[in-house]
Amino acid sequence: MSERIERPASPEVPASLALPDRLVAFGGRLSRWLVWIGGTLLIGSALMVSLEVVLRKVANSSLGGADEISGYAFAVATALAFSFALFERAHIRVDALYGLFPKGFRFLTDLLGLALLTGFAAIIAWMAWQMVADTIEHGARSITPLRTPLIIPQLPWLFGWLLFVLFGVLLLVAAVARRLRGDGAGANRLIGIKSMGEQIEDESV
Question: Who's near 66: CB < 8 A, 6+ residues apart?
């Protein structure tokens, strides 16, 4: 007769603590899609500039506006990539003394660093919001031959900054929630500095 092996039931996670983790998973997927969009914009602008150079050299003609459009593409792609870098813990940090701190203090420095970064991004987003509002109010256009309505590049650029702030706050909440339920390693995977093994794995992939 086969014996039935009883497994200890896993502790239930309160919904208030599990919700941030689900939102983090969704945010990570969304940021990955956005960084693909940003990369596509960069590749498209690179091809446009390359074609512009060839046309000027071979046919002595020009597409017109390639430099302006590539500038918009770079700004939008950069803003869309901020959130992905946040989830990947790719933003630069000075960690000369970080490894010497106790684990609990490291978590506090991680929280402080992310809070300062998110606060700085919030200031930029607020100023960007005001600029976009002025653009909408006055119907501003670029002072170039294209006369581009500036709302076209500014809206996705502002969207990238707002998402960056939103996801920064979300990661703060999720990291604290994991810490409260005793998952220090999980909190570190959200906001901590990557270990040497994680960096090697990233490079290998």
Answer: 45, 48, 49, 51, 52
Tell me if 170 sits within 8 A of 23, measured CB to CB. yes
Q: Is residue 151 over pLDDT 90?
A: yes
| pLDDT at site 9 | 35
In degrees and rounded to multiples of 5, residue 149 shows phi and psi of: -60, 120
- CA dist 68 and 75 (Å) reads 11
Residues whose CB is less than 8 angstroms from the CB of residue 60 and which lie 6 or more positions away in sequence, other chains included: none
Structure tokens at 18: 């599990």
Determine the Cα–Cα distance for residues 54 and 145; give it in Å rounded to an integer: 21
Q: Which residue has the higher pLDDT, 188 or 133?
A: 133
**β-sheet bridge partners, residue 141:** 149
Its pTM stands at: 0.83
DSSP assignment of 141-166 equals B-SSTT--BTHHHHHHHHHHHHHHHH
3-class DSSP state of 88: coil
